[in-house]
Amino acid sequence: MVTPAAHREAAAYLRSTYEMSQRRACRVIGADRASVRYQATRPDDEALRDRLKALAQERRRFGYRRLHVLLRREGHTVNKKRVQRIYREERLTVRRRGGRKRAMGTRRPIETPLLPNQRWSLDFVSDQMTDGRRFRILTVIDNCTRECLALVADTSLSGRRVARELDAIIRQRGRPDMIVSDNGTEYTSNAILGWADETGVGWHYIAPGKPQQNGFNESFNGRLRDELLNETLFRSLPHARAVLETWRRDYNEERPHSKLGWMTPMDYAAAISGETGDRAAQPGGSARTPLATHLNQGSDQPRTLVMAG
């Protein structure tokens, strides 16, 4: 298919070489005169292009949709298709990394809690420093607001240490109704069993070999590894802790989340709290809503540790 640009070039060549009129040149090449005369009115993209490239360099694992949100936040009046066009022209597409094989089987979707602190999820991520020493990161996520509550890095994280970190989070934002984790030794230790009984927090263990039952944390861990761990060389444990805390704050306060309508987790949490306060202020209103999930069916029963079958 011949493009309008090719028609314009052909008509210009005939007019300059054979001294044809524009009308005759268009008749020879079979082009419409309107398309040959057309002058593009597309606005200059230079400033937008430079800013998009700068953001893509700063956020190397962000796609054009998330970069579009950041541009709009900065005041650029631009639609998503225009950002996508420039994104492709500059070849900023994020390279897809090969994923590991995952266990196959029946997948049971886990529903989203309706209020903050109804369910947290825990998991571990491993990485290493430039000298080869390995360390682990405890990730704690609020499944409703998607806030990252903690990123605890150390060379060893026991069940007793996990309990202390949970106590620190609870002092800041209150006690969760339920915590979800896998069957790792840190979570099944006597320290955690005793802590759950003492605090009254329901603890749900996912079925062995079913990480999708802890999907919120699995998704977060993927973002953490893709956007930070695979992009950073950690010189020491203090350096890793400082970088992780900076990224955690950025994740909660600046990074738009696709599942939250491109709001940040902190803004979404504020919006949820405002709506909850409005319901509680109404006559007969209640600020507490049952958790919309199969994990706590029969929530009027005493909290106990449960094992998924």
Write the layout of secondary structure elements.
Layout: H1 4-18, H2 22-29, H3 33-37, H4 46-58, H5 64-73, H6 80-89, E1 119-128, E2 134-142, E3 148-154, H7 159-173, E4 178-181, H8 190-199, E5 202-205, H9 215-227, H10 237-253, H11 265-281, E6 306-307
Parallel strand pairs: 1-4, 4-5, 5-6
Antiparallel strand pairs: 1-2, 2-3
Outline of the structure:
By secondary structure, this protein is α/β, with parallel strands linked by helices.
Overall description:
This protein has 309 residues and is an alpha/beta fold. The chain folds into three domains: 4-37; 46-89; 119-292 and 302-307, Ribonuclease H-like superfamily/Ribonuclease H (Nucleotidyltransferase, domain 5), CATH 3.30.420.10. Helices cover 43% and strands 12% of the residues. It is built from eleven helices and six strands. Helix 7 packs parallel to helix 8 (190-199). The model is unreliable at 101-108 and 279-309 (pLDDT under 50).
By CATH reckoning, the class of the largest domain would read Alpha Beta
Count of distinct structural domains? 3
- Rg: 27 Å
Reading the helices and strands in chain order gives: HHHHHHEEEHEHEHHHE
Number of helices in the DSSP assignment: 11
Mean model confidence by pLDDT: 83
The H-level CATH homologous superfamily of the largest domain, spelled out, is: Ribonuclease H-like superfamily/Ribonuclease H
